[in-house]
């Protein structure tokens, strides 16, 4: 085995272990929750003890905690999420469209902002001390440090309430009854609802990319290889392109990490815009104590982050020859 | 070593040196106008957090503003009776705003300090010892990365009654990983430097080497992430309160925004939205601006030219 393969193998084993631990923590936390979603049914008095036992057995709640844990592990890891208690639908049928809704909002936003703000950040870093640099840093600092729901509220007040150019809530107008993803997403009505949350998401993500790109270029500016390029007679923009290419690695890994976190949705953004995404669904499920839905949603989110982490580490180790591949235990 | 004969003088010297370091660290505030402006906002915010509840003209929750003929003033625009108008429940917005700064300050301050301190300690230990200690601690940071913060916090807050100390603790438990990682990687490079090696060679214990030789050299980055921690904690607290998982006994800015959002009055009641929204935006941005100016000072690679 080469050194890189060994690193890959170890990293993979760690990720699997992490998944198991994360899943177990979710299980413990959920079992700590008081009451059960059936309490409302039971206290309503419409069920006799037999029926209650039957329902509990149906959801496996009559077994010992150890047996429940084993069941839980095997079903989660084989992606059998069970039935949502409140929506009486398979959990995956509830989550899948919500997850798609989140991804369709956030993936394009992340890609857009990664390209635009990295380019802007590199340009700003190259022109250090200019008005553009200062202005872009102040505005992105404002946008990334302000909690996203506040930015969203401001945008709604300005563009939806006062200028009335876009609707404030939802993903489609109430009267729309689209069938299937294609009909849902390919329509002017959708676009109309999409613009505002998309813009807020782009602005919210922009700060980190801009600063990473800017710092990267600032660090490269004095370095030897750029002196060579200048001596060769390359124009300013061509030099910037070389400097920028050399500061791509942190941006790439950061992008990968962010991509993993997108599976969490942007809970607050979705709540403010009533966007039917996975984050908003999770908040609703928590409020209504819908355990199967909650555990499936949190599992998907954790898994996405673990995979993205793995990917980022491997990318870094693969592309950056100065990174030691033995896990960083020595400097 | 001659210092062993006069432990007290030695101690004073160390405290003095540490104080000089801290003072020098803050010198950047005088040079960077943005950081200075941020400092002014932070000072105003701390003042509000300490004295806001006493300055509030009315009780933020109990008192109901009444107009002529003793009718409750609901959703009234700013007037002489209520300088910042009233809420849909007839409460005084100004009083809520003034009183609402305190939980934000408490969670921000202690959440940030806790995040910085815990992350710093773990980062130093992890980086200094390396080996299996490092392995275990870093996998622990991976674990907190993989458990999504917001959903886990919401879950924990559904079975424990939310109060500000619990919220502070949850924030620290989830955020210490950020400073820990950065501090650790700094320690990795400091650890191999000659002065650390000579300290070890002259018989200093691990604890002594860590405290006196390694830690002071990574302190600036610890400060930086403490500042960021404050901003993250404030944002997290406001977000939790906005989702309805805040301390139910206290008025906070996040809770004000929740109420105006839930009651569907965002369209009309700008006087109800703006004070808490601007308050949160101003304080988090200020803390970040200070942190960023400080980062320019301590990051030698960014300092290179200019």
Describe this structure in words.
Chain A has 15 helices and two strands. Chain A has helices at residues 3-32, 39-43, 49-58, 65-77, 91-126, 131-145, 148-162, 180-185, 188-220, 224-231, 236-245, 248-261, 267-273, 278-287, 291-319; strands at 83-84, 89-90. In chain A, strand 1 and strand 2 (89-90) form a beta hairpin. In chain A, helix 5 (91-126) crosses helix 9 (188-220). With 306 residues, chain B is an all-alpha fold. Chain B has one domain: MetI-like fold, CATH 1.10.3720.10. Chain B has 13 helices and no strands. In chain B, helix 4 (93-129) packs antiparallel against helix 5, helix 7 packs across helix 10 and helix 9 packs across helix 10. Chain B is elongated and about 85 Å long. Chain B starts with 6 loop residues before the first helix and ends with a helix. The model of chain B has no long low-confidence stretch (mean pLDDT 81). At the A-B interface, helix 1, helix 6, helix 7, helix 9 and helix 13 of A face helix 5, helix 6, helix 8, helix 10 and helix 12 of B. Chain A: It is found in: Cell membrane. Chain A: InterPro entries: BPD_transp_1_N, MetI-like, MetI-like_sf. Chain A: This is Binding-protein-dependent transporters inner membrane component. Chain A: The chain crosses the membrane at residues 12-33, 103-126, 147-170, 190-213, 251-273, 293-319.
